Amino acid sequence: MPIYVGYTDSYEFSLKRHSSLRLPSQLSGMTKPVNYQPTGFDIATGAVAAVASALNNRFHYPAPNTGLELQLLRLSSQLPYSWGAALAARATENRFHNPSFSFNLTTADLAQWNVSQYDRFDPERRFDTIVVGAPSGATAHLCACLDAPLLAESFPITFASKGKPDDIAGYQQRSVDLLTPILNHNPDLHAVSQFDPIHARQQIQRAVHIHLKLIALPDLYKKFIRERLAPGGALLLLTCSAKWSQYEIGARHKLQVGGFGGFTDQEFIRGTPWLDDWLHGEDGSQRSGWRLSRHWTYQPEAQWGSITGFATNVGTFAGDIGASLHTLSVASIDEISRIGFYAWQWLFYLLRIQPSAVLIESGPQMNPVIGRRSPVLPLWMPSTCSRSHALLQMMLPEFPPQIPVLFQAWPTGQPAPDLVPAKIWNTTLSGRHGRWLGSDPRRFPTDLTTIAQMTPAIAEWSHRHAHELRRPLRCDELNRLHTLLAEGADRLGPEISAETELEKG
Considering the domain boundaries, does residue 1 fall inside one? Predict the structure, then answer.
């Protein structure tokens, strides 16, 4: 009999009890106006906002950008499901940029949005570590462990543009029209248009989704580092070498078919009988994959892959200002998730803190403040697809026994062919003293009211299991951890870390 049950803490929890909780900076206003604003629920920009919240010891609410939408989500979570679902769908509908914005967007706009997330910090506050690189929920947990701001190397932008869900050639032309002005007046940007007719099928009909990647360190990043990095502090460069086959549209413009999930890049391009059957059920006209009559090569993956030249530029700047540079290179987003988990496990071991729970998050749901407020080991999964399920299965032996596992699955609104259903998640985690926190597994993945419930649920759990973290992880300690992992250590138990002197409790 599975331990995971249908009713959770969140269904006994009233959102009104947390009406005084602070919202993230993108909801509560900026001290400086910015031209670029994220739209919808995005992992990359969500990670930056979540880090800013965590460094202010606050929870992160991955909520829509307007007060009206947030109120709709709150209301939907308190209504009967049939009524609440309609309101939640309205509240979570993406708002896209007008195509005319492509003529005005600059690299400085992207950098300004990022650094503005830290405007609320004490102007005198300095950091021993600043992280530059691939943004993700796992990166956010690593930054919170290090007490380090995050300067992202990539930014998503979605433009309103109508098309057909299987028309890859039309999507390519729409991308060219939008990206030509951006790339013409921003030589320090690389762009990847992402055409994902499985996970973003409805979005393709209304918009073009693009990932803008930095080729060089923006001036605003340099200014922030000079002002905020403590004397003797270190820059931590996080690079991800994940590759995906992409079509070459221009010198700095690639088009990627598909993305992270249960299918490979070749399955997207060449198709599979399984996908053809699914498309038939979706009334799709396409069969045998989605292709262009263009040359393709393996390039840095749209959402996670790092541009090589950017790392070189960061290294040059670190040398110019005499800052210590540490590089953490990973091969996949899954590896960042593992490091985020191990970093907190390592810090708790060094401080002789006994973890009280494991928190599994997914997609835009991330609360990197959790380890600072409760002795919780976080494992962030990019999605709730089969690949993330494999990541969880790999990490299960690392979970300390006899402590609960808190599971927060991001709702997709509709099932995808590679989405793992609640029954399988329950089976995988049975016997782990766990529960779905902030959602009802019987309504997964269509219950969008979950978006308004998960953060309040973990906030209340944390309030009941509070602790005070004496200090963050130091960069040299992270380097030691990475060395142990690179040497093939399977676990971070006493047999590995005995050689490291523990702090006295």
Answer: no
* 412: nearest Cα among 192, 132, 88: 88
Calculated CA dihedral for residues 462, 467, 468, 472, nearest 10 degrees? -70
Residue type, 269: I
Sheet containing strand 207-214, strands side by side: 154-160, 207-214, 189-195, 253-257, 243-250, 296-300
Residue-wise pLDDT for 451-473, tens only, equals 888 999 999 999 999 998 999 99
* DSSP class per residue in 98-137: PGGGGGT--HHHHHHHHHHTTTTS-TT--EEEEEEE---H
261 neighbors 199 (Cβ within 8 angstroms):
yes
Reference 46, options 474, 424, 410, 437; nearest CA is 410
- Of 390, 361, 336, the C-alpha closest to 138 is 336
Domain presence at residue 496: no
Q: Which amino acid is at 327?
A: T
State the pLDDT at residue 504: 40
Q: Is the peptide bond before 445 cis (omega within 30 degrees of 0)?
A: yes
Among 14, 47, 39, 6, residue whose Cα is nearest residue 457: 14
Structural domain of 324: 9-488
| C-alpha to C-alpha distance for 84 and 453, rounded to whole angstroms | 13
* Poorest-pLDDT segment among 31-40, 177-186, 314-323, 440-449: 31-40
Does the residue 135 lie in any domain? yes
Contact indicator for 136, 44 with CB cutoff of 8 Å: yes
Per residue in 301-315, pLDDT tens? 999 999 989 999 999
**Counted domains in the chain:** 1
Three-state SS at 54: helix
Q: Which amino acid is at 183?
A: L
User: Which ranges in 230-321 belong to alpha helices (H)?
Assistant: 265-270, 273-281, 308-321
Q: Residue 248 domain-assigned?
A: yes
Nearest-5° Cα angle at 380, 485 to 57:
100
Rounded CA gap, 236 and 145, in Å? 13
Q: pLDDT value at position 195?
A: 95
